[in-house]
Amino acid sequence: MNGLSITLELQPRIDAALAALRAGQGAQALSDQAFSNLYLFREAHAYRFLPGDWPGVAGRTYDGATHFMPLFDIGTAPLPVLDELIETHGCLYPVAERQLQTLPAGRFVWSANDDDADYLYAAESFRDYAGRPLAKKRNLVRQFLAHHAPEAMPFGPSWEAAAREVLAGWMTQKGKGAGEADEPACLEALTHADRFGFEGFVYFVQSKPVAFMLAQALEPGVFAIRFAKGLDSHVGIYPFMFQHFCRSFARPVLWLNFEQDMGNPGFRRSKRSYAPQALLAKWRVARLL
Fold first, then answer.
1. I need a labelling partner for 237 at 20 to 30 A (CA). Which of 17, 36, 73, 171 fits?
2. Contacts for 37 with CB less than 8 Å, ≥ 6 apart
């Protein structure tokens, strides 16, 4: 595939373009539209940056579809440009719902895969886990706090080693070998957290690190949860982490985006157990045959 490797040197250019696409979208901002996501998963998706008058990132989805991720508003591009990009790369992806409205009728077709959709939650639902659908989460937090007196430290370079210790413990508990699951991306995220604007907490019980969470602001008050790891030995740590973040983060938290489930049954059950307010579709745009 032509194009340039996704390197840290490209961050200013790509981040600026994606920030412009997210601007004003609020909770509807897609989790994919951030340089950090492209960089951390550059190998998994074979991402390549294609500069030019109509720049973008070419890659491959988890289900194997080749695509072109526009770094511009597709509504501003000449139709022959979109036609050529689709012919060359297979489809435009991910395209937000609002962008579909800029496409002329009768020329394009679009579809969405449920495995790609972002899980969106109102932060208010995490603060108390009120209501019957979240009763299990509420009880898990009570159980966790009945057995532990956790301490939370805002993530920063001084706590990177503690987060790495949690990740190593999580890998062992899950029976994963080195380089499996999302370990490589997670390690890079910890190293470059400040550069990517990742914020969060490391959690300790009796001075031992037991969990960490890294989030990224997509829009004011809207946070993508990029990485959340907790030790299975501390039952209830996950609902506690999310509750603590929504209650205690330094800036207002209005929405959480848990990203996609990639068709993984375990991820899907876990994300749906928190009763999402919506699933944000990521559309694939192709030419109408």
1. 36
2. 31, 226
Strand segments, DSSP code E, in 72-175 are 92-95, 108-112, 118-122, 151-154
Please write the tens of the pLDDT for every residue from 30-82. Answer: 999 999 999 999 999 999 999 999 999 999 999 999 999 999 999 999 999 99
Rounded CA-CA distance 67/46 in Å is 11
Extract the tokens encoding 106: 């009768």
| Residue 93 CB coordination number (10 Å) | 25
Rounded Cα–Cα distance for residues 118 and 25 (Å): 14
Q: Which two tokens stand for residue 184?
A: 């490589």
Which residues, 6+ apart, have CB-to-CB distance to 66 below 8 Å?
Answer: 58, 59, 60, 89, 90, 91
Nearest Cα residue to 83 out of 63, 99, 101, 68: 68
In single-letter form, the type of residue at position 153 comes to M
Contact 153, 202 (CB under 8 A): yes
